[in-house]
Amino acid sequence: MKQSSLSLLCFCLGYLGCFWFHISMAQNATNATTDPSEVSALNSIFQQWGAQSVALWNISGEPCSGSAINRTNTYPDIKCDCTFDNGTTCHITQLRVYALNLTGRFPEELLALKYLNVLKIDKNFFTGPLPAWIGNMSALTLLSIAINAFSGPIPKELGNLKNLNILSFGSNNFSGTLPPELGNLINLQRLYVDSCGLTGEIPSTFAKLRNMEVLWASDTPFSGKIPDFIGNWTKLNELRLQGNSFEGPIPTNFSQLTSLNSLRISDIYNGSSSLGFIKNLKNLTDLVLRNALITGSLPSDIAEYPSLWILDLGFNNLTGQLPYGLFTMSASLTHLDLSYNYLSGSLPPWVTSTAQLNLVVNNFIFDSSNTTYVEVTLTLLLTTTTSINEK
Ligand SMILES: *[C@@H]1O[C@H](CO)[C@@H](O)[C@H](O)[C@H]1NC(C)=O
Ligand SMILES: *[C@@H]1O[C@H](CO)[C@@H](O)[C@H](O)[C@H]1NC(C)=O
Ligand SMILES: *[C@@H]1O[C@H](CO)[C@@H](O)[C@H](O)[C@H]1NC(C)=O
Ligand SMILES: *[C@@H]1O[C@H](CO)[C@@H](O)[C@H](O)[C@H]1NC(C)=O
Ligand SMILES: *[C@@H]1O[C@H](CO)[C@@H](O)[C@H](O)[C@H]1NC(C)=O
Ligand SMILES: *[C@@H]1O[C@H](CO)[C@@H](O)[C@H](O)[C@H]1NC(C)=O
Ligand SMILES: *[C@@H]1O[C@H](CO)[C@@H](O)[C@H](O)[C@H]1NC(C)=O
Ligand SMILES: *[C@@H]1O[C@H](CO)[C@@H](O)[C@H](O)[C@H]1NC(C)=O
Ligand SMILES: *[C@@H]1O[C@H](CO)[C@@H](O)[C@H](O)[C@H]1NC(C)=O
Ligand SMILES: *[C@@H]1O[C@H](CO)[C@@H](O)[C@H](O)[C@H]1NC(C)=O
Ligand SMILES: *[C@@H]1O[C@H](CO)[C@@H](O)[C@H](O)[C@H]1NC(C)=O
Ligand SMILES: *[C@@H]1O[C@H](CO)[C@@H](O)[C@H](O)[C@H]1NC(C)=O
């Protein structure tokens, strides 16, 4: 009894402590002012970007005030840390300028924001190159400049940003190759470079990126063999290599990527793979290996992938019958595409309930004892074929 009331008291005191802490935080934040060099840098940046008209920012006054710092807002926003100099100075730590139709370049004034750890300026109309001095923005943990029209090479100095967890420069107009120096970004967890314009091989230095969880690298002409060091990125959740110029085979050590949820590899030439490597990838939700020179049969344990809802193995050299397990997956699997293979045998009875189905161009045999299914299936097949022919 005594003990519990004591701990209750401790709890109350602890709660009050927290309470006071919040009050003092708030007061400090209210009284503190933004580092003047950051205020003028921000004003200059916004002027260059033509962002004066954005009502949400307190541009001419105190940037670390008003609704721009209010994270309940959607973009744009700023985040400040106002605990500096005994709670009298705020430094800007995050800057998000998302989807505001802004134009301009990557301005040098950003260097004045020395405490900036998040810079997100996606979905605008920014142009020009990424300058080498971007490598001096050493506090950055997140750099996201996707869906703009930046051009030129990716500066090797980007490899100096050792604190980066997330790097995103997809959907731009860059040229050249991935600098090997990016392999120094050993804290990188997410790399989005899809549609970025770069060509060439993924540098071997990327073998060091063992913390990688997400790599999207589709729709840009990367080439060379699919690197086998990716098989050592055992934290990988999502891998997308579609519409590149990669050569097969898919490395067999991809069997180690047991954390994978989403695996999408398509348009591979020169080197066939079997599906043996997916044996232990039981957490897959979507498996898209389309036009990827896959040979052999479908795994007999296909029903043991409980989360699988997209299975697209179209345009390969798959042979054999559909495994019985596939016939039991009507509840989970909503998108099944096995078109353009050499599969044979009969079709699952639930094909009618599958939201999206494509089984055209195979060698399926229709058993006369399954006429009801066959009729429905044929209708589906004809519908699918027709829609394909119409394209
Ligand atoms: C607020 O400022 C006081 C002094 O003015 C300082 O002792 C305290 O640590 C500051 N609190 C925070 C959260 O920065
Ligand atoms: C904040 O400013 C107000 C009024 O200027 C003052 O009364 C208060 O003591 C200041 N708070 C801190 C923590 O300096
Ligand atoms: C803008 O900043 C000034 C201080 O420079 C402040 O007086 C004013 O209240 C701020 N405006 C808004 C909307 O927060
Ligand atoms: C932040 O948002 C809340 C709710 O929308 C609003 O009441 C509050 O005034 C806002 N604070 C600032 C500083 O804009
Ligand atoms: C911080 O503020 C407190 C309260 O205003 C003051 O007593 C203390 O001397 C200040 N410390 C420094 C290093 O300025
Ligand atoms: C950006 O431009 C598009 C097309 O003109 C427009 O629909 C959209 O509202 C603009 N967005 C902003 C934030 O101004
Ligand atoms: C970037 O940092 C390097 C090395 O510290 C320094 O020599 C260079 O002047 C800096 N560049 C800019 C534009 O500040
Ligand atoms: C992309 O960059 C090239 C030069 O590298 C340029 O000719 C082309 O116009 C740019 N395209 C777009 C959409 O910006
Ligand atoms: C994968 O990691 C192991 C152990 O660190 C290492 O021996 C092997 O060479 C690596 N494989 C590749 C392809 O990098
Ligand atoms: C697979 O998913 C389950 C449930 O989300 C999770 O507990 C497990 O750790 C995952 N396995 C791997 C190897 O990531
Ligand atoms: C796939 O089958 C076609 C036609 O039978 C054949 O020409 C091709 O070599 C096969 N490709 C692979 C990777 O087995
Ligand atoms: C088709 O009919 C055969 C014989 O009646 C039966 O064994 C088989 O399970 C049926 N196939 C399907 C998909 O229902």
UniProtKB/TrEMBL annotation:
Q: Which UniProt keywords apply?
A: Kinase, Serine/threonine-protein kinase, Signal, Transferase
Determine if Signal is one of this entry's keywords: yes
Q: Provide the topology term for how it sits in the membrane.
A: Single-pass type I membrane protein
Signal sequence segment = 1-26
- Xref: Gene3D superfamilies: Ribonuclease Inhibitor
This entry's Enzyme Commission designation comes to: 2.7.11.1
Location of the protein in the cell? Membrane
Q: What GO CC terms are in its UniProt record? A: plasma membrane
GO terms (molecular function) for this protein are: protein serine/threonine kinase activity
Q: What is this protein called?
A: Putative non-specific serine/threonine protein kinase
What organism is the protein native to?
Rosa chinensis (China rose)
